[in-house]
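Q: How do we represent a protein-ligand complex in a form that can be generated token by token?
A: Start from the inputs.
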Amino acid sequence: MLVVGELINSSRKAVKEAIQAENIAEIQKIAKDQRDNGADYIDINAGTFVGKEAGYMKWLVTSVQEVVDTPCCIDSPDPKVIEAVLPLHKGVPMINSISLEKERYDALLPVVSGADCKVIALCMSDAGMPETKDDRLSIASELINKLVKNNVPLENIYVDPLVQPISTNDAYGREFMNAIDAIMTEFPGVHTICGLSNISYGLPERKLLNQTFMVMAICKGLDGAIINPLDRQMMANIHAAETLAGRDEYCSNYLTAYRDGKLAME
Ligand code: THG
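Then emit the structure tokens for the protein with (6S)-5,6,7,8-tetrahydrofolate bound:
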């Protein structure tokens, strides 16, 4: 499972304040904590700062990369912001995200075409948010085919079928699960990813729903996630579910996680 740590996001109050105060130590601590707890990428999102987003994103990426070798996941709906940040990123970044929305697609394609980066392909089009598994699969198919044709290797593509709150429609969990299954079956070699906390929006005990949803999605083949790596139960669930799904030869990752103390809950 490719883990993208979600905590450096200006929609979180503490992060918003740290950014405004240019509290570099606080941002760097959040980056190090996520790395120490298993993040493969550090998501960077300053989306709440309209007009100042690019400047803050540059500051965040530079600050984070001063203290960790973990690459960043550049999280912005604005292709101009992504383009502005990329030249200062060291290593192989993840771009979050391209979609089938025409303006966004046309602006980001030249950035990702032939570039050494991973890219999240969000299942969204100018027709709006997908509802069903078929909506998601049809957007995913078009995106994957176009990207591959334009020199983005299949193994660099992480399709995000888009998680929507189960509190607004009881079919949303199932439609998402079936989309993961269909995408992973139809396009062997492609990856899937999601920010899964949306599933629990509006309900109590959100962590319980997020953790359970993760296990169900791993069962369908999900192999990337934008999550809070400091949630120990979530990380333990991921290790257990991947082993049980047959993605851990000789249970060796499970045993390593056990020896590293990652499976025991206090
Ligand atoms: N797909 C992709 N990128 C994404 C998302 C996605 N980036 C942003 C988001 N969704 C994932 N990142 C976060 C970051 C922080 C939080 C949730 C998702 C978070 N949530 C608090 C919670 O759930 O308890 C509440 C925050 C608040 O409301 O104050 O911290 O889907 N490609």
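Residues 161 and 212 are 18 Å apart (CA to CA). The mean pLDDT is 97.
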